[in-house]
Amino acid sequence: MSAATALRVEDAAAHPRDAGLAITLRGLSKTFDGGAPVIRGLDLHVPAGQFVAVVGRSGCGKSTLLRLILGLEEPSAGRVSVNGGAGNGAAQSKKIMFQEPRLLPWARVADNVAVGLGREIGRAERRKRALAVLDEVGLAEKAGNWPATLSGGQRQRVALARALVSRPALLALDEPLGALDALTRIEMQAMIERIWADQGFTAILVTHDVGEAVAMADRILVVEEGAIALDVAVDVPRPRRRGDPALAELEGRILDRLLGHRA
Amino acid sequence: MADSAAIRSLPGRAHRAEAAAPLPRQPSRLPTAQLLPWLLPTLVILGWQAAASFGLVSTRFMPAPLDVAAAGWRLSQTGELWENLWVSFARAAAGFLVGGGIGLAFGLANGLSNLSEKLTDTTLQMVRNVPHLSLIPLVILWFGIDEGAKLFLVALGVFFPVYANTLHGIRSVDPQLIEMGRVYGMNRRELFWRVVLPGALPSIFVGVRYALGIMWLTLIVAETISANSGLGYMAMQAREFMLVDVVVLAILIYAALGKLADSLTRALERSCLAWNPAYRNA
Questions:
Q1: Which of A98, A172, B102, B148 lies most in the core, judged by the most C-beta atoms within 10 Å?
Q2: Which residue of A has its CA nearest to B174?
Q3: Beta-carbon count within 10 A of A5 CB
Q4: Which helix (H) or strand (E) holds A78?
Q5: In Å, how far from its chain's centre is CA B26?
Q6: Which of B1, B13, B46, B75 is nearest to B245 (CA)?
Q7: What's the average model confidence in pLDDT over A122-132?
Q8: d(Cα B214, Cα A50) in Å, to the nearest integer?
Q9: How far apart are CA A251 and CA A53, in angstroms?
């Protein structure tokens, strides 16, 4: 990461993040069709602008938790309140990035990004904003391409641009880097971290890569059987260096916790 | 007739696979690349002409290409050819638009609504298994040999490939894209125009290409059996008077018209499906 980016990161950290949404979950439970509860009485508060990583084994309920926060699922019990954020309408201010890019193959890159904007915005304005955010993810020159001509990493960057184009107050990332190769992944992590620091939205990253969680997040939640088993703050200052002993120590601690229940 | 039924009953996916996997192409900088497909037809015609000229085949049953060309010239001079061609074309187009339109409408309705599919799909599948040309005697009783009979048969034949492939196309739209559209705030209308329809389009085109083939087939059979104008009628009249050259001319015109319809659809595919690597530069 360059010195300029690092400066911006500290800058953003120094100011209150009023661009983000605060999330409060109280006694949240979710059961699907009479099965065992996927989320069991979960309480959580995420302050506006925090970068939270949610880690856990497959099937622990972390993706369901994300969908509940986004309002894509109705809670069986308890409540979700998401509030705060400057200037954005509530519906427009939450965006999700999926594990797959999910781009429309029949729309050019810029039009795919514009999907993230509401219809009420005029055509010229949509295009302008799409190009601006494409520039931010380093794909300005691909605006007129079909998605089929891009590499996997580039497609995921277009998906990121689509999520960011409406300037969301909450960005949910559902294992968005899982399918990428190791190097592209590290680049994308740095890019997401930089944009997060710039824009100050609240970020929730669901991942099963503990290293990724430790490198990117302010706070890590370990979810086990639908409840929060561990809630740790990552105090390591940004920019973080890969292989930092403090990060490695934390990563080891979380992995022990995740694997411990097996042993 | 059996052929047409067999073609229609092929599963949509097979049609699709065939259309979606063109052979690797070389850059066509030389005109030879464009002329190559016509090499074989040219050789066949030359061989045919030679065989006829040297008396290897009897021109009584198989006229030489030059005779066929002469017949074409003669008939186009009198205007008979153009008139029949136009009549057949108008019938084909009307039948295609009616049948294809209804097929598209049912395909869309049944692809988008479970209720609609439950109500109509079983019935349509049963009707589909009746070879539509077997209805000719009944249709003649109903409509006589009027335009109505031809329109009905062509529309019926064209309906099923368009219906089946539209339904298949809509059903096979990536559900992840639909979820993305919903999450990103598209309403039903936007979802249809921006996600579902473009996703189903390649399959719909496959249906249209099959329908075009069935359109010609049905029309020619119908005109041959019962008509007082059109290409099929022209060929039948010629047979009565032993004008073999006109019969062969009519057959060659069918081949040319079929090729033309196919080329038009391909051009349309190329412009509508440019996003799909399988169709680009094809």
A1: A172
A2: A102
A3: 16
A4: strand A77-84
A5: 28
A6: B75
A7: 91
A8: 63
A9: 12
Residue A88 has pLDDT above 80, yes or no: no
Of all helices (H) and strands (E), which one includes residue B112? helix B80-112
Average pLDDT, chain A: 85
DSSP state of B134: G
Check whether A8 has a pLDDT greater than 80.
no
CB A261 within 8 A of CB A98: no
Instruction: List chain B residues with CB under 8 Å of A98.
Output: 176, 180
Among A73, A92, A94, A106, the strongest candidate for a mutation testing the B interface, having the largest count of B CBs within 10 A, is A106
- N-to-C CA span, chain A: 39
| Angle at A196 (CA atoms; ends A225, A50), nearest 5 degrees | 45
Long-range (24+ apart) CB contacts under 8 A made by B85-92 are B85/B231, B85/B253, B87/B229, B87/B230, B87/B231, B88/B219, B88/B223, B88/B230, B88/B231, B88/B232, B89/B257, B91/B147, B91/B150, B91/B151, B91/B154, B91/B219, B91/B223, B91/B230, B92/B154, B92/B215, B92/B216, B92/B219
- Quickly count: other Cβ atoms within 10 Å of residue B20's Cβ: 16
- Rounded to two decimals, the ipTM of the complex is 0.82
Report the pLDDT value the prediction gives residue B143, as an integer from 0 to 100: 86
Give the Cα separation of B11 and A253 in Å (integer): 55
Which of A91, A92, A98 has the CB atom closest to B180's CB atom?
A98
pLDDT in tens, A195-252: 999 888 999 999 988 999 999 999 999 998 888 989 999 988 888 888 889 899 999 9
- CB distance B226 to B140 below 8 Å: yes
B44's enclosing H/E stretch is helix B39-53
- In the beta sheet, which residues pair with residue A230? A222
| Model confidence pLDDT, tens digit, residues A135-156 | 999 999 999 999 999 999 999 9
Give the residue, B228 or A85, on which the prediction is more confident: B228
Q: Do B75 and B81 meet the contact criterion of CB atoms below 8 Å apart?
A: yes
The answer to whether A144 faces chain B, any CB pair under 8 Å, is no
Residue ranges in chain B whose pLDDT is less than 70: 1-30, 280-282
**Predicted local confidence at residue B15, as pLDDT:** 41
* Confidence tier at A261 by pLDDT (50, 70, 90): low
Q: Nearest CA to CA, how far is A212 from chain B (Å)? A: 25
Instruction: Find how far residue A60's CA is from the centre of its chain.
Output: 18
Q: How many CA atoms lie within 13 A of B267 on its CB side?
A: 6
> In the 8-state DSSP scheme, what is residue A38?
E
Quickly count: other Cβ atoms within 10 Å of residue B25's Cβ: 9
What is the reported pLDDT for B200?
Answer: 95
Q: Convert the pLDDT of each residue in B233-266 to its tens digit.
A: 898 888 888 888 999 999 889 888 888 888 889 8
**Closest Cα in chain A to B199:** A106
User: Looking at the complex, does the CB of residue B281 fall below 8 Å from at least one CB of chain A?
Assistant: no
pLDDT of residue A3: 44
Q: In Å, how far is A203's CA from the nearest CA of chain B?
A: 17
CB contact under 8 A, B176 and A102: yes
State whether residue B199 sits within 8 Å of chain A by CB: yes
